[in-house]
Amino acid sequence: MKFTKIFTDNLDHCYAVMRLKAQGRDFLVVASEEDAPCYAYDLDDNFKKQLVWEDVGGTMTLVQIPGTLDFLATQRFYPGFNAKTCRIVKETWTGAGWHQTVLGDFPYVHRFDLLPKDDGQGYWYVGCSIANSKQGEDDWSDPGKIWVGEYDPKTEKITKEALDLALQKNHGYKRMDGYSLITGVQGLFKLTWPTKAESWQLEQLLDHEISDIVSADLNGDGKEEYLMVEGFHGPDLRLTTSDFKTVTKKAGQTPFGHALWGGKLGQNEYFIFGWRQGERDLVLITAEDLSFQVIQQDVGPSNILVYAKDDKQYLLSANREVNEVAVYLIEPAE
User: Fold this and answer.
1) Which of 32, 103, 126, 299 qualifies as a cystine partner to 319, CB 3.0-4.6 A?
2) According to the lineage, what is the superkingdom (predicted)?
């Protein structure tokens, strides 16, 4: 594949990314993990930039309310996991910009999600806290929790309760079909969403430390493989089969492994991966031996996504370590 950088902007410690498309509008949203702005870039107006908020950053997660240009976001989850005052805000589209409402304090919540209910009445809420309390950056003595509940967009209330699991160093979260994958020191967990017959169901799938996980059918056999960053923020990378049997493991080569995406590019499926220390590369993983093509060197990406627009595909990368928001056009190799 060929990647051509077509747009850049400067954003201090850019981190969280989201495609926000609804109601005839189309934006990319990028937020900082520092005391810095969140911006929306208009994909129908040559990436014209709008300020969403100015200086309350610390944003780890952005989640669209389906069918709208409204979204929820974490704030005040500052570097060093100094996240006691972390909160979730709602950004409501006004027709010209966004109006912010603070929904409440959610200490140490690193990842969260909204999941549509089967009856169409509101959303299930899942929140994963990286710790329950911390005395310093390296204090992990009070593990985090998986919070589940409901979000009502009419009342703008989130109700939540903790599941019976002390989850240490949660970092990864992946929405699947009817369930979520959640990672931590204790391994990989499958959280099945409520149905008419069952409440929340939590099942442990793996018992070794995993930082992040993503899936794609890399070998084209009709079954998705999993790519995992192991150790908290790496430095190991593992590819497994759909039933979690190891295909390839590369140890110690990807320090601060962080950015992950999996899916279809052109006619085939791939993984895109980036790490934030050492070489700090952004790469396309092209084979089961985890060989890769370098997209860009020494940018230290934090989060990435691929999107389609006007029959073309693009990669949005928050190149955190160089304070750069970047968009790449993706084309077949010549």
Assistant:
1) 299
2) Bacteria
Quick one: 322 exposed, middle or buried, by C-beta within 10 A (0-12, 13-18, 19+)?
middle
| Pair of tokens at residue 258 | 């962080």
Which one, of 128, 138, 135, 137, lies nearest residue 108 by Cα?
128
Confidence bin at 281 (pLDDT 50/70/90): very high
- Cβ atoms of 292 and 277 closer than 8 Å: no
Domain boundaries of the chain, sorted by first residue: 208-334
Query: Is 56 within 8 Å of 36 (Cβ atoms)?
Result: no
The highest-level CATH class for domain 208-334 is mainly beta
Backbone phi and psi for residue 322, each to the nearest 5 degrees, phi listed first: -120, 15
| Residue 257 vs residue 196, higher pLDDT | 257
